[in-house]
Design brief:
The protein has 101 residues and is an alpha+beta fold. It has a single domain, classed as 2-Layer Sandwich (Alpha-Beta Plaits), CATH 3.30.70.100. The chain has 3 helices and 4 strands, in the order βαββααβ. Strands 2-3-1-4 form a 4-stranded antiparallel sheet. Helix 1 packs antiparallel against helix 3. It starts with a strand and ends in a 5-residue tail after the last strand.
């Protein structure tokens, strides 16, 4: 299993817009094959960092998910909305594996 950790730098004055974007992914990601662990918004302290975790059985499963996402109408609309409103200033992806006993 791998988990994609996404760290977003967002416009703190558009937190509500980012939240709507994140809520849209709650149905899009599972429909495209990702196991969405969740999205997190800034609450206390730093006001411009948001995060998401999405798990996959393998890196190959992640690549299949990305291919589905590129053709999914709801996913494409969500990406377009983010580009239009510009509430995401940057994002970083890190792929993690769990520590097991």
């Amino acid at each position: 299993m791998i988990t994609c950790f996404i760290r977003y730098v967002i416009d703190p004055f558009q937190k509500a817009e980012f939240e709507a974007y994140a809520q849209n992914w709650l149905t899009i990601i599972p429909a495209c094959g990702g196991d969405l662990v969740g999205y997190w918004l800034p609450n206390e302290g730093t006001n411009n960092i948001a995060m998401a975790l999405i798990s996959f059985d393998s890196l190959a499963a992640y690549e299949t998910y990305r291919a589905r996402l590129r053709t999914d109408p709801a996913g494409l609309a969500n990406f377009a909305m983010a580009q239009e409103k510009r509430f995401i200033l940057s994002e970083e992806r890190t792929f993690l594996t769990p520590v097991t006993a």
